[in-house]
Amino acid sequence: MVVSNKSKGSLDLALQIRIPGPNQKRFRYSELVAGLKEANHLFRKAMGILAILAPQTKDLTFVFASSGSDRPEITVLWNGSPETKVADDGGMLTIRVNESTKENPEVLVCDIPEKILAVPQR
Question: 92, exposed or middle or buried, with CB in 10 Å at 0-12, 13-18, 19+?
């Protein structure tokens, strides 16, 4: 039983898994794919007998320390066409990870993230 001072139906439970972050500013995309696969495995494992209903994710959220006016960036050096994403004002940046890609491009981050989160979609 959970006791709360909030009105019935207003609480929400969220599950997120922290992926070990890189210890350098350059790493391979396969590290993101491996982390995402492990997170999805853990989501299924947490559901036990209901694993078939376990939510999955294709996204990883990078959380960077606030750095004033500079917003952190991640660049994936896809074969011939780099893709750069910029974090929001809170230092968070979500990328969609392609698990089936045959490429293993280099990933560049301007700063080492504080954490990387996998949050299942509903």
Answer: middle
> Global pTM?
0.81
Percent of the chain at pLDDT > 90 equals 50
Gap between the terminal Cα atoms of the chain = 24
Residue with tokens 């990883």: 60
How far is the CA of 89 from the CAs of 74, 75, 81, 86, in angstroms?
A: 15, 18, 26, 9
Q: pLDDT band at 62, cuts 50/70/90? A: very high
Q: Answer whether 107's CB lies under 8 Å from 74's CB.
A: yes
Tell me: pLDDT of 47 over 80. Answer: no
